[in-house]
Automatic annotation (TrEMBL):
One of its GO terms (biological process) is regulation of G protein-coupled receptor signaling pathway. Residues 74-124 form a coiled coil. It comes from the Eukaryota. Residues 16-69 are annotated as: Disordered. Keywords: Coiled coil, Phosphoprotein. SUPFAM superfamilies: Thioredoxin-like. Residues 42-54 have a biased composition (Basic and acidic residues). Belongs to the phosducin family. This is Phosducin domain-containing protein. Gene3D superfamilies: Glutaredoxin, Phosducin, domain 2. Residues 54-270 form the Phosducin domain.
Length: 288
């Protein structure tokens, strides 16, 4: 039978818990919590606390003085870098200048060596003797050329070809194409007669235009004409020479004209070696 106490406290069989058991369990839990709290407190006490008045680390002064100090440091580093670059540039310039100078000096020394060697070579008696010998051989070869001393009159085309092709290759052949009725042709024939005496190793010829088979127009406006051949090749072609010399001229005028164009050998261009030898020979003859 359920009593009033059971109704107030609940049925003991299902809902009621013994107060003694609960109190025992609660006391055990409280003791464990106290032990843990005590150990944590001890550990916290073991760690040293930082001094609130002691500063560790670094900080940046962002005030005006700090900014000015940073700017001065930056300019100092920039100046040092610029000075280092300028030093490197000056060293490079000096190196290049020394290289160029040495190259120029080497070139100058090489040129001086070549000049000295050439001077020694040119002053060598053996070389002078060799040059003299070669010049004498050339002069001797010219002396063997045929001599003419007159103006050859060509009568037909075959003689014209023979006068050129059958002649020595070293002989210069000057052919005057003329017409008797054209002014200037007579003066040219007279001038060639005089030149044939002065240049006897040059073959001077004359030929009427009708014999050469030239056109009527050329007979009127192309003569007097001078054709110069050497070794069978035409080396000079001068038409209407009277336009430059006039209708009345002399042998000196024709000579200057041919010398100017390189058609005659210049007698004034005698090698110094041959000239000195000739002068020595003349002095020996005068002493005798």
């Amino acid at each position: 039978m359920t009593t009033l106490e059971d109704k107030l406290l609940g049925e003991k069989a299902h809902c009621y818990c013994s107060s003694s058991e609960s109190e025992g369990e609660k006391s055990d839990d409280d003791s464990n919590n106290e032990i843990q709290t005590t150990s944590v407190v001890k550990e916290a006490d073991a760690v040293p606390r930082p001094d609130p008045y002691k500063w560790e680390g670094s900080s940046t002064n962002t005030g005006p003085k700090g900014v000015m100090k940073d700017w001065q440091r930056f300019k100092q580093l920039e100046t040092e870098k610029r000075a280092e670059q300028e030093k490197e540039r000056q060293a490079l310039i000096q190196k290049l200048s020394l290289t160029c100078k040495s190259a120029l000096e080497e070139e100058r020394e090489k040129s001086a060596d070549i000049d000295s060697e050439m001077a020694e070579l040119l002053s060598d008696e053996f070389l002078l003797q060799f040059q003299k010998q070669r010049m004498e051989e050339m002069m001797a070869k010219l002396a063997t050329l045929p001599r003419f001393g007159k103006v050859v009159n060509i009568k037909d085309g075959q003689e014209f070809l023979d006068a050129i092709d059958k002649e020595d290759k070293a002989v210069t052949v000057v052919v005057h194409i003329y017409e008797e009725s054209v002014p200037g042709c007579e003066a040219m024939n007279g001038s060639l007669i005089s030149l044939s005496q002065d240049y006897q190793q040059v073959k001077f010829c004359k030929m009427i235009g009708s014999v050469a088979g030239i056109s009527k127009r050329f007979k009127i406006s192309g003569v007097p004409a001078l054709l110069v051949y050497k070794a069978g090749q035409l080396v000079g072609n001068f038409v209407r020479v009277s336009e430059e010399l006039g209708d009345d001229f002399f042998s000196e005028d024709v000579e200057s004209f041919l010398l100017e164009h390189g058609m005659l050998p210049d007698k004034t261009c005698v090698p110094s070696i041959i000239k000195s030898q000739n002068d020595a020979d003349d002095s020996d003859l005068s002493l005798e």
